[in-house]
Amino acid sequence: MSAVDTNLLADLEMRGLINQMTSPEDLVQHLREPRTLYCGFDPTADSLHIGSLVPLLVLKRFQQAGHKPLALVGGATGMIGDPSFKAQERKLNDEATINGWVEKLKHQVSAFIEFSDQANSAAVVNNYDWTHNVDVLTFLRDIGKHFSVNQMIQKESVKQRIEREGDGISFTEFTYMILQSYDFSELYNQYACTLQIGGSDQWGNITGGTELTRRRYQGQVFGLTLPLVTKADGTKFGKTESGTIWLDAKKTSQYAFYQFWINTADADVYKFLRYFTFLGEADMVAIEERDKEAQGRPEAQGILAREVTRLVHGEEGLQAALRISEALFSGNLQHLTAADLEQLYQDGMPASATGAEQLTLVEALVTSGLAKSNKMAREFVGNNAVSVNGEKCTQVDTLLSAATGLHGRYHILKRGKKLFHLLRW
RNA sequence: GGUGGGGUUCCCGAGUGGCCAAAGGGAUCAGACUGUAAAUCUGACGCGUAAGCUUCGGUGGUUCGAAUCCACCUCCCACCA
What we know:
The chain has 18 helices and 15 strands. The chain is of the alpha/beta class. It has 3 domains: about 10-225, HUPs (Rossmann fold); about 240-330, Tyrosyl-Transfer RNA Synthetase; about 345-425, Structural Genomics Hypothetical 15.5 Kd Protein In mrcA-pckA Intergenic Region, Chain A. Strand 7 (about 240) and strand 8 form a beta hairpin. Helix 10 crosses helix 11, helix 12 packs across helix 15 (about 300-330) and helix 13 packs across helix 15 (about 300-330). The longest helix is centred in the last third of the chain and has 30 residues, at about 300-330. The radius of gyration is 25 Å and the shape is elongated. About 40% of the residues are buried.
């Protein structure tokens, strides 16, 4: 019960992972003992995306330091929708959908924290459990009474929605803060949970919970928010041209996930190492130093990509991503064996099977999704942007068939510098 | 409820009867240069090999011809109540 790493907050500080804390000095004292903390994840889709990675990893950091993490899945709050810093009212999803998502998130969240029999073993909780049978009158009298509307409308997170003409905020979303506060006080009561972490946008909701807990149970609980992950070029983190980067390998393959991190800008990569890996400070400083001295390609992106992919998809997932990446970007495609190619397919390289006897290059590009119309396909070919099995192909009418493929069965199509597709006959 | 202003191609935004698939910017994509970068330069950017076809909130109408004019509908915004 005493094996607590008291350097935890200093480590978080070094990583730039602390945005705000309630009563910092008290919290430092508080964390000298093993504590229980939580972070909420609302089901807004059937998978979390990398935006949730920072809080997930911080839960893990807390557990490694000897504390007990609770991952809260918002079966209840997900039905309401968090208005914090959202420009517009969100549409509600139906209950069955949300319940399906809740199950997936539970599973996903579980991969990041330990459930073994140790004293600080993690738990997954669902706020639906303690909210679904609270009746309205009880809620209004026992919980609502503790909240001042005057204070609530002062919160930065909803201010713009209230002040801005045109867009408003429904009572439903306005109430979200109360529900989340209720969660915190319930977790305090049921699990002795005394710390909530969350993104910086959660500050208002978290402090609501610390106050409610004090009023209901006279307990002191703490809040700690994490910084919003930003990119140096100002674009939104976690999105690429092709969409959101999900944690679920079915939605974003391990290969695509790995590639996402490999493509991190130099200006962001050292910051991201701190946010997303468990490497020690000395190691990270050394990496940065080495990259600075060596001209040419920095190695930080590769380290980041390997570390994060391993964290999310495990060693196997990482190896799969590496196999594909190495084959496509550094290997000679002609040297791949049939088994190698089959492995790439198994590893989740973008692929499709063709039903046709033969395809023109243009048709192949369109059916593989590498070009969205025939016209675009022709343009790519004309631009010298397409290669087949590692060789530039500039003839629009080139015919592809099983016979022209590698091992009588595969074509590796490449459009531009980094988009690949495996065509199977 | 009243008055006024709007809804244009992924986004912003010009366009007020033919010269409009529709200016300009952004985003995106490709090429060159590179490090599977950044910056820069070049090109593409509704669909179609092309002829041509389909777009400018919706539906009808006027006209040889409409994103542009008319009617109705719908959604949004501002001000007033």
